[in-house]
Each structure stands twice: as C-alpha cells, then as structure tokens.
Design brief:
Layout (H helix, E strand, L loop, with lengths): L2 H46 L10 H8 L1 H34 L5 H10 L6 H12 L4 H8 L13 H26 L2 H9 L4 H29 L3 H7 L6 H11 L3 H39 L4 H7 L3 H11 L1
Helix pairs in contact: 1-12, 2-12, 3-7, 3-9, 7-9, 7-10, 8-9, 8-13, 9-12, 11-12, 13-14
Family: Belongs to the binding-protein-dependent transport system permease family. CysTW subfamily.
Membrane topology: Multi-pass membrane protein
Keywords: Cell membrane, Membrane, Transmembrane, Transmembrane helix, Transport
Length: 324
C-alpha cells in the first residue's frame, strides 16, 4: 500500500538528477560551440558592418553589390557548388546503394575503408595528386591522346573544368557515406514485398525509396554544398584565370591586410546566400516527400501500403510513417 506513494515521492528527485546530469553533459559541448562558432560569427558581423575607423556602415556590402565583378564571382561560385553537389549525389547514391544492397559483409568494410581514405589524406596531397593525372603527359591526357581525343602535349590544367572535376572528386566520398547510411536503413523486405505485389521499379523508387531517402539527401546536399562553396585552394591551384571562385578573392583580400572589412562583408554575403540555397533545397525535398505521401493517401491502396500490412510490426511502422 505504501509503494506507490514512495515511488511518486522519489520521481521528482529522479527527474532533478536527470536534469542535472543532462546539464552537466551538455555544458562542455555548449561552451565549445559558443567559443568556436558563435563568438567568431559575432566578430565577423561586427567587422563586416564597420569601417576602418570602427564606425557602423553598410558601405562594404554596397561596394560588393554594386560591383559586377564580385557579383559575377558570387554567381559563378554558387553555380559551381550547386553543380558539384548535384553531380556528386548522382554519382555517389548508386555506389552507396550497391554497397548497402549487393556487397557482402566481408568486402563492405574494405570498400568503406577506401572511401574514407580521402578524409585522412592531406588536401594539398590530393590536389597535387590530381595535378599529376591531368597535366600534359599524365595518365589521363596520355589516354585521351591515344584515343585521338586530345593532343599529346595538351592539358586541361588551369581551366574551370579541371577545377570542377577536382571538387567532385573531393565530394563523392561524402555523398557515398551519407547515402550509404540512408540506403542501409531501408528495409529490404519492404522493397521485395512491393515488387512481389506488382509495383514497377519506377513506382518503388518514387513511392518507397525516395521518401525514405529524401531527408538524407538534404543532409548530403547541405554538407557538400557548404564544403564546396567555400573552396579556395582548388581554384587557386587548378582553376586558372577563368576558374576562380569567391573564396579566392576573400583569401587574397584577407592575406593582403588591406580593407579586411570588405573581405568579411563578402564572406557574410556568401554565407547568407549559401544558407538560403540550402534552406530552399531542403524545403523542396520536404515538399516532395509530403507530395508523394499525399498522392499515396488520395489514390487507391498502393502495393507498398499493402506490403506494410504483411510485414513485421516495426517494418510496417516505418513504411506507414513514410506514407502518412
């Protein structure tokens, strides 16, 4: 008769201890986030909206917006980053799907290890290794000349194309790892049941695979786009005069030590436009998932919905959650 009151009396103490433990665990990470992320951002905002005398001004942003050169660099940077991100996801998703679905348990860790190698390799080493491939007399140019597609002494160095190829090469490992996680979480029994009930491959992709993967596609897009839009080493080494990006201008301006407020203003504009694009793409992916779910609810019973009713409870819950 006394156990229930005692348990009710102990519950507030347990909740207080849990809250204290949560605060204790979150404090170190929160302090590091504030010191290493929030404070530098606040400093950038202050520098970007001040002049050399320390007075508040919007002249730095007005100078960039009024300059067609800087606006062209901004547009080129955003376009290159968008294309690199889309191509990387398009190339990395099939590889990740094959790795998750058709690779044996022994070969899978080995392949993932090869995918991770670029992350443990110096960026400059990757860039100059790529230079040795595309320079005159390198393996790629020798192969193209043997096929009659290029001059033996020609090279694609210092062109926008080689800059984009390098950025794609750096972004594909991220795409594979992120989409591998998304592909591995999709239940194979759901796909098999949908195909058994007569669903075509296109139907399975649009109504099952795409809704279950759209969230990770958004994460992949954000990671790759933000990583690419701030690139400056690759364009500086490989891009040549016509392949420069806004990151090169910002880096040069900061290193020169002249008019640093203008360089910070350019970086803030690049940050805001990048966040706007990432937010727009993420919202579009979320809308596409909701639209697919709405079509599935409005139409007749779909094969994957019928399949969800024949699966185990946890698998059915996953599929029904997507359809709703």
């Amino acid at each position: 008769m006394t156990t229930a009151p005692l348990s009710l009396a102990r519950r507030p103490r347990r909740q207080a201890r849990g809250a204290l433990a949560t605060s204790f665990l979150l404090t170190p990470g929160g302090l590091l986030l504030a010191l290493l992320a929030l404070l530098p951002l606040v400093a950038l905002l202050i520098i970007g909206f001040t002049d050399g005398a320390g007075s508040l001004t919007l002249a730095n942003f007005a100078e960039m917006i009024a300059s067609p050169v800087y606006l062209s660099l901004l547009g080129r940077t955003l376009l290159i980053a968008f294309c690199v991100t889309v191509v990387s996801i398009a190339l990395g998703w099939p590889a990740a799907w094959a790795l998750a679905r058709y690779t044996g348990p022994r070969a899978k860790p080995l392949i993932l290890g090869f995918v991770i190698i670029p992350y443990i390799t110096s960026q400059l080493l990757l860039i100059y290794g790529f230079v040795s491939l595309v320079q005159a007399g390198g393996p790629i140019m020798s192969l193209l000349s043997a096929m009659g597609l290029a001059d033996p002494q020609a090279s694609i160095m210092y062109t926008p194309a080689v800059n984009i190829l390098m950025l794609i090469q750096e972004s594909i490992p991220t795409a594979i790892l992120v989409m591998y996680s998304a592909s591995d979480q999709i239940s194979g029994s759901v796909l098999e049941a949908s195909r058994t009930l007569g669903a075509s491959k296109g139907f399975v992709f649009t109504r099952v695979i795409w809704p279950l993967s759209s969230a990770m596609i958004g994460v992949n897009f954000a990671l790759t786009f933000v990583q690419t839009v701030g690139a400056f080493a690759e364009p500086a080494i490989l891009g040549g005069p016509t392949g420069q990006m806004l990151g090169n201008t910002i880096s040069t301006q900061l290193q020169s030590g002249v008019h640093q407020q203008f360089a910070v203003a350019m970086s803030l504009v690049l940050l805001i436009t990048s966040l706007a694009i990432v937010g727009g793409v993420t919202g579009l992916l979320s809308w596409s998932r909701s639209a697919v779910s709405g079509v599935a609810r409005a139409g007749r019973p779909r094969p994957e919905r019928v399949a969800a009713q024949t699966l185990l409870p946890e698998e059915a819950l996953t599929t029904e959650g997507v359809l709703r």
